[in-house]
# Entry
Amino acid sequence: MKIFITGDTHHDLTEIIEMYDAITSPDTPEGIPHVDHFDYLIHCGDYKKDAFDLSKKLGLPAVCVFGNCDDVWEADFDILDTPAGSIAVTHGHVEDVNNTHDGLYALAEDQGCNCVCYGHTHIPVCGEENGYLIINPGSPSRPLDGTKGSCAVLTADESGYKGELVYYQTLLDAREAGKTDAPEDNDSGEKERPAPKKTGGFGGFLRKIFNYSDGQ
# Structure
């Protein structure tokens, strides 16, 4: 099962659609994982309407929740069952994720899940914590981690989970690397050849890959 994860879009779907198109393109840029087809969209809140709009645009069933910007302050979560286990989806404001992940662990334990996807902080996370896979896709439109935005890709099969963060800057770098400068006239009247273009560096931006399966 292939799952596309986002959240905190805040009524701006421009970057997240660009990232989805890049990931699913036959010519996926270097540094971005290629996925032929996604099975589900997870949207971690702010705003829930964005999840419905994005679900329609991408043609994917959505698992989504309300966030604080939806003015919902009681617990709201959803569960997605996968071959690797069950994923709890929440926004995180009720669980106080700005200060602790204890509420995420409690939610996962209560609901029998081995993975939790959340949002709210606008800071991406992908890794094992307290025996659970914890994923925050960050925000594609209002990032707070010093990048240009992010999302996450999750594979769930019988062997476990494989999660990866995808950064919008990687797509921008690939576009910049593909540009060519038009030649300019020099004093002799000859066309001046452009200097070799420096390729965009992908290594300067965090890209975490996490492999997780039950028992590890």
